[in-house]
Design brief:
The chain has 1 helix and 8 strands. The protein is mainly beta and 166 residues long. A hairpin with a 3-residue loop joins strand 6 and strand 7. The radius of gyration is 17 Å and the shape is globular. The relative contact order is 0.20.
């Protein structure tokens, strides 16, 4: 039952804000929600602080037969530049994120990471639907693993995401 409720909540986080809009935006707003595929794969919420800075949170939940996990990252990034391919304008961003994976069940423990990130993003408006941002983000940095004792290593992330600006 808990698994079903969690899945319904995740789907609702994506669908409800989009369906609730009676007047669809034609410009990018500062609050966005969407999905990120990669490491981590989950629901992401983005907030544009101003034209150069933005922050994001991505949360993922996994369920297995004998264990599960919660994977979450909190990050911020700065627009460092932009480039064009034909008429399409892409933003280049650099940032920092902190992540945690909490293993549940038999392999219970916590892994913490801090990563420097870089991303390329593309903003567009889909006629009669609203404003979107698609991005590819990757990062690398140190991690501390508390699952089987205490270990320090290198961690990476890479994800393709798309958010809808509410």
């Amino acid at each position: 039952m808990k698994k079903t409720i969690a899945i319904i909540a995740l789907v609702a986080m994506i669908i409800v804000p989009v369906a609730a809009k009676s007047i669809l935006p034609t410009q990018k707003s500062s609050f966005a929600v969407g999905i990120e595929l990669g490491q981590p794969t989950g629901v992401t919420v983005n907030y544009d602080i101003d034209s150069k800075w933005d922050g994001y949170i991505t949360a993922a939940f996994g369920f297995g037969s004998d264990s599960g996990y919660i994977n979450a990252v909190l990050g911020g990034q700065y627009k460092a530049g932009e480039f064009k391919i034909n008429k399409a304008k892409f933003d280049v961003n650099v940032g920092l994120q902190a992540g945690a994976i909490i293993n549940l069940g038999q392999s219970a423990g916590v892994r913490l990471a801090v990563r420097g990130t870089g991303s390329v993003s593309y903003d567009w408006t889909w006629k009669n639907v609203g404003a979107f941002t698609a991005y590819l983000r990757a990062g690398v940095g140190p991690a501390i693993n508390f699952v089987d004792g205490v270990n320090v290593g290198i961690t990476w992330n890479a994800a393709l995401g798309c958010v809808y600006h509410i």
